[in-house]
């Protein structure tokens, strides 16, 4: 049986992988590819130059991948996974962003989250907020 418009179902919360959720998943996948490629190359070739920065970019890549999978899976487990990823991502971009401005010597090279994601058009700062907003919008209102 096809779910009603908007992704709502009679069982549980509306799906996170429908409507605007598909665009959000696509952006997470795009950032997963970008961050994985960049971090993978940096870790493989220049890890000694800026280990914290490169490992943080690797962590961001993993979070983007897991968040995309969580949003795409929908369901309770997928929602929970996406929620944790968005919260960790937001804490990471705020923490690393502030630290990279306050103590730039700690980051001899940029991470995905440096300066609140300025190298990526501040999308790393906006993305977890959009993810959390989407999870809120598609929450189960029957509870």
What does this molecule look like?
This protein is mainly α and 143 residues long. It is built from four helices and no strands. The mean pLDDT is 89. Keywords: Membrane, Transmembrane, Transmembrane helix. This is Integral membrane protein. The chain crosses the membrane at residues 23-41, 53-74, 81-99, 119-136.
Can I get a quick summary?
With 143 residues, this protein is mainly α. It has helices at 20-46, 51-73, 75-102, 123-137. It starts with 19 loop residues before the first helix and ends in a 6-residue tail after the last helix.
- The tally of beta strands, per DSSP, is 0
What class, by secondary structure content? Answer: mainly alpha
Rounded mean pLDDT score: 89
The radius of gyration is 17 Å
Protein name: Integral membrane protein
Transmembrane segments: 23-41, 53-74, 81-99, 119-136
Keywords: Membrane, Transmembrane, Transmembrane helix
Organism: Micromonospora fluostatini
């Amino acid at each position: 049986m096809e779910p009603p418009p908007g992704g709502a179902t009679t069982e549980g919360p509306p799906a996170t992988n429908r409507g605007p959720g598909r665009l959000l998943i696509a952006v997470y996948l795009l950032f997963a590819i970008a961050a994985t490629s960049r971090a993978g190359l940096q870790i493989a070739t220049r890890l000694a130059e800026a280990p914290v920065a490169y490992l943080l970019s690797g962590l961001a890549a993993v979070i983007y991948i897991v968040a995309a999978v969580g949003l795409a899976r929908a369901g309770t487990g997928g929602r929970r996974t996406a929620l944790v990823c968005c919260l960790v991502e937001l804490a990471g971009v705020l923490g690393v962003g502030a630290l990279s401005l306050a103590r730039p010597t700690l980051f001899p090279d940029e991470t995905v989250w440096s300066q609140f994601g300025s190298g990526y058009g501040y999308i790393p700062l906006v993305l977890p907020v959009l993810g959390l907003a989407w999870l809120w919008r598609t929450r189960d209102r029957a509870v």
